[in-house]
């Protein structure tokens, strides 16, 4: 999985939990100031990924993966 954006794991977990408890995604975007014009879509994506992957979704990658030259040549 790629690196996650500028939101901490705690914030993302809080937002996903609030959404699952019935709070409106649009309301959270306006109140919490989620960046971008598609903040509500971001909440939907986070929730789907959390449901599919569980807690592992919140693991942040510190950098891009690196592959050996041999593997790249294959």
pLDDT < 50 runs, ≥5 residues: none
The major β-sheet equals:
none
Q: Approximately how much helix is present in the residues?
A: 40-55%
User: What class, by secondary structure content?
Assistant: mainly alpha
Number of beta-strand segments: 0
The radius of gyration computed from the alpha-carbon positions, rounded to a whole number of angstroms, is 15 Å
What string gives the helices and strands in order? HHHH
- Count of helical stretches: 4
- Total count of domains: 1
CA(first)-CA(last) distance? 22 Å
Overall geometric form: elongated
Q: Give the amount of beta strand, in percent.
A: under 5%
Overall pLDDT level: 80
Question: How would you briefly describe this protein structure?
Answer:
54% of the residues lie in helices and 0% in strands. The chain is mainly alpha-helical.
Architecture overview:
The chain has 74 residues and is mainly alpha-helical. The protein has one domain (9-73). It is built from four helices and no strands. It has helices at residues 9-20, 25-32, 39-53, 69-73. Helix 2 packs across helix 3 (39-53). The two termini are 22 Å apart. The model has no long low-confidence stretch (mean pLDDT 80).
Features:
elongated, 74 residues, single chain, 4 helices, mainly alpha
Write the layout of secondary structure elements.
Blueprint: H1 9-20, H2 25-32, H3 39-53, H4 69-73
Helix pairs in contact: 1-3, 2-3
């Amino acid at each position: 999985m790629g690196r996650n954006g500028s939101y901490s794991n705690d914030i993302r977990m809080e937002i996903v939990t609030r959404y699952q408890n019935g709070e409106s995604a649009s309301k959270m975007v306006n109140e919490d100031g989620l960046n971008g014009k598609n903040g509500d879509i971001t909440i939907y994506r986070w929730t789907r990924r959390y449901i599919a992957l569980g807690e592992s979704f919140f693991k942040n990658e510190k950098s891009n993966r690196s592959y050996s030259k041999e593997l790249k040549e294959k």
